[in-house]
Amino acid sequence: MKKTIITALLTIIMMLIVTPVQAKDKIIERPAFRSETSSDLCPVKVELTKKATIVHFHVNCRFRAWNMQGAYLECNGKTFAYQSGRIITHDGADVLSDEPFELKKEYDNVLSDSLILMFDPLPKDAKTFDFLEGDKPSYWKYLGIRLDHQLYPYSLPEYQKPVDKGEPLKPLTLKYGQCKLTVDKDSSLMFAADYTQNPVTGANEHETPAKDAYLISVYPAAFPTFLGPYIPHWDLNQFKGLLVAGETLTLSFDEAACVAYLHDFAAGKPDPRQCVQAGGSIGDLNQVLLDNPGLALGWSNEVPKYEAGQTFAEWSEQLWQNMSKLRKEMLQSPDYTRRQKDFIQLYIDWIYLFVRENYTRSLRYRMHPAADSIWQKLDETYTFIDPHAKDLQLYRDGRSYYLPLYNNYSEASVSNRLAYLDDNGLNHGEVYEVLKGMAESQAIAKWMIEYQVQSDSMINRVHPYFQPMLHAFYDSTRELVKRMMDEGEKRKRTAPDVPGDQLVQAIVNQYPGKVVFVDLWATWCGPCMRGIQAMEPLKKKLVGRDVVFVYLTNESSRLNDWNKQVIDIPGEHYRVSSAVWNQIPNVSGIPQYYLYDGEGKRVWEHLGFDGDETLKDIEDAIRKAISTGLTQN
Q1: d(C-alpha 482, C-alpha 464), whole Å
Q2: Facing residues of 143 across strands?
Q3: Among 149, 9, 172, 138, which residue's Cα sits nearest to residue 69?
Q4: Among 206-220, 455-469, 495-509, 596-610, which stretch is predicted with the lowest mean pLDDT?
Q5: pTM, entire model
Q6: What is the per-residue pLDDT for 454?
Q7: For 535-544, what is the mean pLDDT?
Q8: Nearest Cα to 592, choosing from 580, 607, 581, 604?
Q9: C-alpha to C-alpha distance for 307 and 291, rounded to whole angstroms
Q10: What mean pLDDT value characterizes the chain?
C-alpha cells in the first residue's frame, strides 16, 4: 500500500514537471503604439487570454456620426480575425447603454463611449500587434501596439536653448518673396494652406518644388504669415508656424514622442521639446510658438469667461490684465533670449488684439457650449476705443512685420484693424500706411476679379509696396478676361430664388426631360477636383445625349478661383451664398453627387470620390437613368 502511494505521488510530480504551466491572462493598461490615423478612437487596454485578444478603445466622436467598416489584428505577418464586440455609452460614471457592437452600423454619439472588441488569440511570443479597420487611407489604423509596458525610444537630441547674446529683435524690412520651410519627415505633415493666401488677390499660393528625403515647401508671401502645420500625433492644431520671406524655418519632429505626448500612455510622457524642435534663421521665434501652442488662436485660459451684464470695456479690461500677467511671466523666464522676449512682447500684443476683435469666437470656445445670446451685452457695447492701445509695442515700427498685421486677409479684418488704429490715435507711421495701402489694393484687386478694367495710373496711386503685385495680377487677369467672357460667362447661371432646402430640386426643374447630374463641390476641395477631372472622358461619351452636368458651389470658392475653374469645366455652373448652401439638407461633406432622372426624381446619390469605383458607379447610374427614360418614352 505504502509503495503504491509513493508511486502515485511520483507520477503526479513528473506530470507537473513535464506539463507546461498554463499562462495567466495578461493585461496591458494604456499601451504605447507607434502611429495612428485619428485620436477619435484610441486603444486604452489590451487583455491577452487563451481564447481571445480583447482590445478596449476609448471613442470620442462627440460631434459626428461614425462607423467601422471592418476590424482585424496583424502580428508577426499573420492576421487574427474579429470575433465580437460591445459598445458601452457613459454619462460620467453611469452606464447609459451596453449593447453588442455591429460592424458597418452607424453610431451617432453625443457622449464618449467605450468600445470593446474581441479577436482570435495572439501567439504567446507576440511583442506588438497592429489594429486595422481596413486598407483605405481614411480607415482607423493603430500600429505597433506594445505588450511590454514600454515606450518607443525617442530620436531627437536634447533641446539646447539658444545662447543669449543680448541682441534685440531688429525691425524687419518688408518684402515680397518666398518663405521656405524644411521638414525632416515628409510623410507625416500636412498644412493649412488658407494661411498662405496672397493678401491682394486672396488666392492660395503654395508649391512643393522638392519631395525626397526632405519636404521643402515654398510659400510666396507679401507679409510674414502664420502657417498652420498639423503634425499627426502632436496637438499642434493651434500652432501657427511663422514664415518670413527670405528667412528659413526647419521643423524636426519625433513621431514616437509626439504620440506619447498626445496620449496618456502608462509608461510615461515626454517633454514637449522632445517632440518638435525648430531651427533655421527664425527657428528661435518659432520655438516660442511651439512652447505656447494654446495661445495662437486665443483659446487659452487667459481669455476671461464672460460674466452676465459685463460691458465690452469691462470684459476687455479683464482680458488686458490676464494678458499682462502672462506677459510678465513669460518675460521673466530664463529659457528665452532678449530677441525671443522682444518677440514675446509683440506676440502677446497680437493675441490681445486678436481675442479683442474676435471675442465671440474665443468665448464660444472658452465657454462651450454656451449660446451666443449670453454675451449680447458685449455686442451692444463693442467699441474699438481701447485705453491700452498706446501701451502696445505692436504697430510702432518694422518689428511689427514679424507677425501678421491683421487676423486674416479679408477686407473686414483689414478694415477693423485700421478702425482700431484710427479710433485710438495711432493712424500714422510706416505700419499704418502699409495697412491703408493694403485696403486700397484689395479694393482694386476686387474690381479686377470682376473684370472691371483699371488704369495703370490708378494702380500707381496705391502704396508703392503693393504696386508690383497689382500690376502682375492685372497682367494675368487681362489674359483671362477674353476666355472668361467668351467661355466662362456662357456656363454661369443664376440660381433660382428659393430657400436652400428647395434649391437643388429647383435647379433640376430647369432642365425638364433631361437626366441631371448635380455635383456639389468647391475650388479648394482636392477630391472634388479629382472627380471632375476623372469624369471628363465620360462627359465626352455622353455628348448629344439628354444629360446635363450641373456644378454647384458657394462663397468658400473664391470668386477669382471659381471664374478660372468655370473656363475648364464644361457644364452648368451655379455659385450661391454660404447661407443658402447651409440650408441644403443632408450635405455632410463634398463632393456630394446627386442624379435625377428625366422626370426630375432623385434616383442616385453618393458622398465622396474614391477613384475608379465611384466613376464606374456614376457611369452605371447615368446610363440606367437614360435607358429608363427611353423605355418610358
Answers
A1: 29
A2: 35
A3: 138
A4: 206-220
A5: 0.68
A6: 64
A7: 90
A8: 607
A9: 30
A10: 83
Q: How many CB atoms lie within 10 A of CB 416?
A: 17
User: Cell 513669460, residue?
Assistant: 330
Is pLDDT at 332 greater than 90 in this prediction? yes
Segment 500-533, tens digit of pLDDT: 999 999 999 999 999 999 999 999 998 999 999 9
d(CA 397, CA 384): 21
* Residues 36, 150 contacting (CB under 8 angstroms): no
Strand partners, 547: 515
Counting residues of the chain whose pLDDT is more than 70, the rounded percentage is 80
Angle, CA of 564, 568 and 573, to the nearest 5°: 75
Q: How far, in Å, CA of 630 to CA of 58, rounded?
A: 53
> What pLDDT score does 195 carry?
43
In contact, 130 and 143? CB cutoff 8 Å: yes
Instruction: Give the model's pLDDT for residue 612.
Output: 87
Q: What is the DSSP letter of 34?
A: S
* Alpha-carbon distance values, 435 to 179, 199, 394, 422, 429 (Å): 21, 11, 13, 12, 10
Instruction: Please report the DSSP string for 215-277 in residue order.
Output: EEEEEEESS-EEEEEE-TTS--TT--EEE-TT-EEEEEE-HHHHHHHHS--TT----GGGTEE
Given a contact cutoff of 8 angstroms between Cβ atoms, the answer to whether 224 and 403 are in contact is yes
Q: How many whole angstroms separate alpha carbon 616 and alpha carbon 633?
A: 26
Q: Which three cell numbers stand for residue 152?
A: 518607443
User: 3-state DSSP call for residue 344?
Assistant: helix
Q: 241: buried, middle or exposed (CB in 10 Å: 19+, 13-18, 0-12)?
A: buried
The CA-based diameter of the chain, rounded to the nearest angstrom, is 123
Nearest partner of 248 among 293, 279, 292, 215, judged by Cα: 279
Cβ neighbours, 10 Å, residue 403: 24
Question: Contact, 414 vs 438, CB < 8 A?
Answer: yes
- Structural contact between residues 161 and 283, judged by C-beta atoms closer than 8 angstroms: no
| Tens digits of residue pLDDT in 408-450 | 556 778 889 999 999 999 999 999 999 999 888 888 887 776 6
Please name the residue that has the C-alpha cell 521665434: 285
Q: What Rg, from alpha-carbon coordinates, does the chain have?
A: 30
Distances (CA, A) of 259 to 133, 146, 237, 274, 291: 19, 13, 14, 11, 17
Neighbours of 129 (CB within 10 A): 27
